[in-house]
Design goal:
It contains 5 helices and 30 strands. It is mainly beta. Strand 10 and strand 11 form a beta hairpin. The longest helix is centred in the first third of the chain and has 18 residues.
């Protein structure tokens, strides 16, 4: 994972990058422009113009988008897609807008944009550096007030230009919504190919918008239920080799993996603790399935549940003090919560139907889960079990995973009759649902934190 080399945000100038960034008016400070969207109510569209990012000289680069001029257009399109697909904004992208000059990036022609009805304006630039890297700038303006709201600039390798686009999207999104960023993040998932009764399942990763997909395992052994470590350096997943389940940790920087634990007993759903030091998993012994905890370095496991029936899953609260899991000890799948040491286990779901695959929100205020009431749907509820809402209406929607800011939920949807699956996401309003592009069928998504 190649990091962004340097970053400059409004009010946080770093001298090395400040020399590369154009002179601009002082960035605006103060409160968030439009307030918070932490509630689940619908939010009015906000017209945002995002023209192509100009360049001081159109030169060839090693970026996948092409030279600096082509990269400038591609950057604006990625930002447009990011802001459009989250459902909060109404952006107009570069194909419908004139490209500004480099001078206009820091001094927009506000009267022109006011005449076009734009409320907000995103300008930026691309410049090729002598060392092969790119300097990419991003500016957000309030058109009506003729005022700069926030700016940022990043020096990136040519292969990382999309990360700069997502960073710009995050800058705009956070300034206008009051929410934490989430576009510059990655998703681990299971890539599926082959016939319905003999699926090949490989560990794969991609950017938050589906770009840059990459397979990490060969598919010779089945891979299931991946999860990113809190520091993004590792992915824990379940693999079946010669019919026996094994929990592996894949090192994303070195491309190597290590065995954490293995058993001849059925094993399920490994999950990281918030500090990255231990892993939860479920294992069936003598017909009884319980939740265990093991050090990420391996060693002896500790059993946390000990009830007749099936206790599966296990997702920590953000502070690591509690664990949410599913159990059929009451006669059907329901959601339970316990302390991190296994004490004080109590049921929290009492609505109709069954409930499975719970996942604690990174905000700590909600739990997403699979609601089974005839069909499978994605639902959310409070951490005490109240306020249950169903967000999706597919035939088989399951395995929710949260965006880093806790506003969007990703899941996988299986087509009726075919067994083919794809990744989808929905926001907390339930109104903004979309399918993510993947090169093959996909399941078991795991949304990682915002990239460092």
């Amino acid at each position: 994972m190649k990091p962004i080399i340097a970053m400059l945000l409004a009010g946080l100038a770093m001298p090395a990058l400040a020399q590369n960034a154009p002179t601009t008016p002082p960035p605006a400070s103060g409160e968030v422009l439009t307030g918070t969207v932490t509630d689940d109510s619908a939010w009015a569209d906000l017209g945002i113009a995002i023209p192509a990012f100009p360049t001081n000289a159109d030169v060839a680069t090693q970026a996948s988008a092409g030279g600096t001029a082509a990269t400038g257009r591609a950057l604006a399109q990625v930002i447009t897609d990011d802001l459009k697909n989250n459902g909060l904004f109404k952006p107009t992208g570069p194909s419908s807008l004139p490209t500004p000059s480099m001078t206009e990036v820091a001094a927009p022609a506000f009267a022109t944009w006011q005449g076009k009805g734009a409320e907000m304006l995103v300008h930026g630039f691309v410049r090729a550096n002598g060392d092969g890297n790119l300097t990419i700038g991003c500016y957000l303006y309030d058109v009506a007030l003729s005022q700069q709201l926030v700016k940022g600039a990043w020096v990136v390798g040519p292969g990382e230009w999309r990360r700069a686009a997502h960073k710009c999207s995050d800058l705009v999104y956070s300034r206008l919504s009051g929410e934490s960023p989430f576009f510059d993040s990655r998703i681990a998932y299971i890539a599926e190919t082959g016939p319905k009764n003999r699926r090949k399942k490989q560990l794969a990763v991609m950017d938050s918008d589906g770009a840059n997909p990459r397979f990490l395992t060969s598919g010779q052994a089945i891979a299931l239920t991946p999860r990113y470590s809190p520091d993004y350096k590792q992915i824990v997943y379940l693999s079946y080799l010669n019919g026996n389940p094994r929990i592996y940790i894949y090192d994303t920087e070195r491309g190597t993996q290590k065995l954490v634990t293995q058993s001849t007993n059925p094993t399920f759903a490994p999950r990281w603790s918030p500090d990255g030091k231990s892993i939860l998993y479920s294992m069936a012994v003598g017909g009884n399935t319980d939740i265990y905890r093991i050090s990420a370095a391996g060693g002896e496991s500790k059993r946390l549940t000990d009830n007749p029936g099936i206790d599966v899953g296990g997702s920590y609260s953000p502070d690591g003090s509690k664990i949410v899991f599913e159990s059929d000890r009451s006669g059907g799948q329901q959601i339970y919560v316990m302390n991190a040491d296994g004490s004080d286990q109590k049921r929290i779901s009492f609505f109709g139907g069954r409930a499975a695959t719970p996942e604690w929100s990174p905000r700590g205020d909600q739990i997403a889960f699979t609601h089974i009431a005839g069909d499978f749907h994605i639902g959310v509820m409070s951490t005490g079990g109240g306020g249950m809402r169903t967000l999706t209406g597919g035939w088989q929607d399951e395995a929710p995973t949260w965006a880093p800011n806790g506003r969007v939920i990703q899941f996988f949807r299986t087509e009726k009759g075919t067994g083919r699956s794809a990744l989808w996401q929905v926001d907390l309003t339930g109104r903004n649902e979309r399918r993510l592009p993947t090169p093959v069928d996909a399941s078991d998504p795991a949304w990682g934190p915002v990239l460092p």
